Amino acid sequence: MSNYSIKDLEQLSGIKAHTLRIWEQRYNLVTPKRTDTNIRYYDDEDLKRILNVAMLNAHGMKISKIAAMTCNEVSEEIIRLTDQSLDHNDQIQALTICMIEMDEDRFEKVLSTSIIKLGFEDTILKVVYPFLTKIGILWLTGAITPAQEHFISNLIRQKLIVAIDGEVGNNTGKTFMLFLPEGELHEISLLFSSYLIKKHGHKVIYLGQNTPDADLVSVYNMQRPDYLLTVITTSPSGEKVQEYVDMLGNEFPEAKVFVAGLNATEHPLSLPSNISVLAYAKEIKRFLVQLEEQIV
């Protein structure tokens, strides 16, 4: 069970801390606990309660009415809403509750419903990515446990792998080599890129997580791909990001190299002429569309 500050509740629910305190005092929606040093905190049940209340309130239900509902009535109404709603924030809230409860069946239903309504790409871009950004921030602050983060990330990873396996068409375009640097394990963006590349008719050489530099060079010399794509989320970090980018520029001067990820975008980098930084997931899709036009 995790402990949350009122600021954590604010970040997760989108409801201001001041409003949460008013709801707490006026409607007794949640009751904060206190540590041995008298610091207020909230538990998983409190967070679920606030997320549900925030969603119902956003759909026009008055707080006084919500406060009078039983837990079962609230849950039933939330399920009804998420099954019908096209609002991205509703889906993100629902996924957050699935993460807290570690409810695989409900997660599967929420995500599958979103894919049916929005399509696979828009679900990843408009629901999954914002959701992962939210839980990533909370994981860094210690508001959620690594187990919760890993649980939901692995379920999303499974969805991406199934989608990639479904792209078995004619991959006769360019060749892309996808990899993560040594020590880098955050694979979701790389998997989504693999899906997009294959969907646009190109070949993917997928090396995956934690790729040693020597192996990268060896596979490149064997396959001679047209493009390289990597994502730097946590490793390397600091000044080593520039060193890694320089290595890529020196080792693969004949290939176009794309670098994405938090550690590649939050620091100013001196880029070799054959390297470009992708700030957003949509940029790889934009490039693929442009490449398609050039080939045609």
From TrEMBL:
> Which residues are in the HTH merR-type domain?
3-72
The domain of life for this entry's organism is Bacteria
Instruction: Answer whether the UniProt record assigns the keyword NADP to this protein.
Output: no
GO MF terms listed in the record are: DNA binding
Under CDD domains, the record lists: HTH_MlrA-CarA
Return the protein name: DNA-binding transcriptional regulator, MerR family
One Pfam match: B12-binding_2
Check the record and name the InterPro entries matching this protein. Answer: Cbl-bd_cap, Cobalamin-bd_sf, DNA-bd_dom_put_sf, MerR-type_HTH_dom, MerR_fam, Meth_synthase_dom
